[in-house]
Every structure is written in C-alpha cells, then in structure tokens.
Amino acid sequence: MKNRKPLCGIDEAGRGPLAGSLVMAGVILRKPVEGLMDSKKLTEKKREMLFPLVLENSDHHIVSFSAQEIDDMGISKCLQLGLQRIQAFLSEAEYLFDGNSTFGVDNITTMVKADEKIAEVSAASILAKVTRDREMVAMAEKYPVYGFEKHKGYGTKVHIEALMKYDRCEIHRRSFRVKGLDEPTLF
C-alpha cells in the first residue's frame, strides 16, 4: 500500500481589514491537539492557549504580507504567493485551503468552512489569527489613536472615525477604499 501524504491545512487572517498584514499559516499536525476549532469561534484566551500547543505538535509555516505589499501586489497575488511559499516550505503534503479559491495555485484543494471541520485547517486558523492579532496589539502601542488593539484593523465605526480624524498611518492599506475618506467632496 502506498504511503499517504500528510494533510497540510492552510488558512489566513486579515484578508479584509483596512490596516495591518495578511497572515497565512500552513499546518501539518504530528499529534492531535485537543480543542481545535475555527479561531473566530474561540475566545482570545483559548486561542493563546492553543497557539503554543499547535506549534509544539506540528510542522508549520507562517507567511505574512505587509499593508505595503498588499497595496503593491493586490490581495489575490499575496494569497497566491502565500500558498506557494507554504507549499515550498511544507513540501510532500496534500494541501487544503479554507475557502473556495486556489488563487491559481496547483495541487490545492479548497473547502468552504474547512476551519470548522478539519483539525489541520483549524490549527492553521489559530496560528494565523494569533500572529496577526499580536501584531495589531503591538501596532496599537505605536499608533494609539486608532484603537487597533480592539478592532485589529477592521473597518469598525470607531476605526473609521479615527481615520476621518487622523487619516491613515503607515500600516493602513491605501488600496482599500474608505467611504467618506476616499470620495471627492462636491462643492
């Protein structure tokens, strides 16, 4: 019988925010980790508890794209490169990416809500989200007026109000339009 390749689950965090990085993670679990599920359904405390357990019990690779890289290449190209880098680092695996697009990358299977159904994708979801959330908390210290520690760069009312008052900082994605900030005013 032919040896099966291990499953590498892949997920991302930060596709839609107005600020911060896009973070992608690939995970091949060597041992089961109890309590894995979609990172969005876990409390921050539970994600932080699971993060080192996933690291200890897996082969993994985390890829990050800055706001500048997202602006320069576009989000789809970043996702494509991230998938390719994970494949290159965690070679000889079968790859399952959460969602419905491979972004043109060969040898990737997709599944909507895989982060809720497949342990390896849940683990990747946790690595990506915790990595990104930690980055945004650090950026909140550097740029306190935006409240990044609360909304993690997503387009909440508080974040939009801060953008209107202070404009963008260096970690904002300039290619992501903000209603009221990017429309020309008519006089």
List keywords for this structure.
single chain, 187 residues, alpha/beta, Nucleotidyltransferase, domain 5, five-stranded mixed β-sheet, 7 helices, 5 strands, metal-binding, Ribonuclease HII, manganese
| Shape call | globular
Global Rg: 18 Å
Strand content: 15-25%
CATH T-level fold name: Nucleotidyltransferase, domain 5
Mean pLDDT: 94
Strand arrangement, major sheet: 3-2-1-4-5
- Tell me which CATH architecture applies here: 2-Layer Sandwich
- Poorly predicted regions are none
Tell me roughly what share of residues is in helical segments: 40-55%
How does the helix and strand content classify structurally? alpha/beta
- The count of domains is 1
Q: What order do the SSEs take from the amino end to the carboxyl end, as H and E?
A: EEHEHHEEHHHH
> How far from one another are the termini?
74 Å
CATH class: Alpha Beta
- What is the fourth-level CATH superfamily? Ribonuclease H-like superfamily/Ribonuclease H
Largest sheet: 5 strands, mixed
Tell how many strands the DSSP assignment holds: 5
